Amino acid sequence: MIPQYDQHSLEDEVWSVSDLNAYIKELFDIDYRLRELLVIGEVSNFSRAKSGHAYFTLKDDRSQIRCVMWSTFANRSAIEPVDGDAIIAQGRISVYEATGQYQLYVERLEPAGRGDLAKAFEQLKERLAAEGLFDPVHKSPIPTFPEKIGVVTSADAAALRDIRNVLRRRWPLVSVLLAPTLVQGTDAPTQIVQALQWLDGRNDIDTIIIARGGGSMEDLWAFNDEGVARAIFRAAHPVIVGVGHETDFTIADFVADLRAPTPSAAAELSVPDKAEMMDHVQGLNRDLVGDMMAFIHRHRVYLNGLTRSLKNLSPQGALDSKRQHVDWLFGRLDRAIAQHLDRAKSQLEISQTRLVSVSPVSTLLRGYAIVKKKEGPIVRSVSDVIEGDELEIHVADGDFDVTVE
């Protein structure tokens, strides 16, 4: 039980704990220097509650501070740190009144050092934009029906498998030529440029895809290299860049002829969809048949009009005969057109069956042979040969000569 004091027995006012914590919180909240600040430190005790809120501690070699990141911000964060990560946290300082503990209420996280990378990114982006490297006038159209696509990526990357799977599903007619390269690290930019230049120097490439899966800004930094950007700009072939995820942007994206949000999307944008093309062709076929039928109908109506006009200018019998013949011809044409589509559907299967049934190879494989006279016709009867005739015997795997005895 809290003891009761006579207010006149003490010179100072007596505060309740709640009032004191509330007052201290108010002091924190009105200090503009604590409303928005950046704090760098090492993460420890990171956890996510069922509510989605994140709780962790930031520490250095001398101190530590408790941090809270509400789910609204945590779910949008580009990174989710683990214990030991060095990060920069942006947020505000306030007091949790229930415990009287002051905390950093975090709104955004980024890896330590990322601020320098972001600054370098913006500087290079502004300089290249000023030079016109991002200008749409320099961007080439992507071929609609490519036969071969060059891919610049790591040979064992999931991005390559995704690209191949998409191309195989959407447009199996296209082939892929890989120019393997590192896609991360200090040596990656040089290798990416060399791989791109090798593909661009070929005359059998229609489109080039530069791809890499997702990662942090540091992981994707090779695609923010100025040399890579200028190599893409100088490429004679159209270049599609699909690096990272939908929210990731690199300098290469801005220079490319087409930016794709992911490697799979880059593959989708590089080829048509065979299913859509088949639907389009079938639609054209239906339109063509409809136009043909309408054409025939119009000319039939026109011809019938001419026939009626000529009725009084020629013998009635001849005119009736011609008119009947014309109707017969048009009826035959109608039936032929109606049957044409059905025959076309089965023509390939019938042709294949016929070829197999009449193939001499099939007959020879069953043990039969073809007997011919030297420089002469095929022998079909014993009466076709006499003693001494030289014959050629053809079997499944070759031929040999014999003499009739």
Q: What attributes does this structure have?
A:
405 residues, alpha/beta, OB fold (Dihydrolipoamide Acetyltransferase, E2P), Rossmann fold, 5-stranded mixed β-barrel, 5-stranded parallel β-sheet
The CATH homologous superfamily of the largest domain is named Succinyl-CoA synthetase domains
What is the count of DSSP helices, taking H or I runs of 4+ residues?
Answer: 11
Main sheet record: 5 strands, mixed, barrel
CATH topology of the largest domain: Rossmann fold
Task: Give me the side-by-side strand order of the main sheet.
Answer: 1-2-3-5-4
State the end-to-end CA separation. 134 Å
Number of strands: 13
Helix content: 40-55%
Order of helices and strands: HEEEHEEHEHEHEHEHEHHHHEEE
Fraction of residues in β-strands? 15-25%
CATH class of the largest domain: Alpha Beta
- The tally of structural domains comes to 4
Can you tell me the CATH architecture of the largest domain? 3-Layer(aba) Sandwich
Structural class: alpha/beta
- Rg over CA atoms: 41 Å
Shape: elongated
Regions with pLDDT < 50 over 5+ consecutive residues? none
Q: Mean of the pLDDT scores?
A: 86
Chain-wise SSE layout:
Elements (H helix, E strand, L loop, with lengths): L16 H14 L6 E12 L5 E6 L4 E6 L1 H4 L11 E11 L4 E11 L2 H18 L16 E6 L4 H13 L4 E6 L7 H13 L6 E6 L13 H9 L4 E5 L7 H5 L2 E3 L2 H8 L3 H37 L5 H43 L1 H6 L4 E4 L16 E6 L2 E6 L2
Parallel strand pairs: 3-5, 6-7, 6-8, 8-9, 9-10
Antiparallel strand pairs: 1-2, 1-4, 2-3, 4-5, 11-12, 12-13
Helix pairs in contact: 4-8, 5-6, 9-10
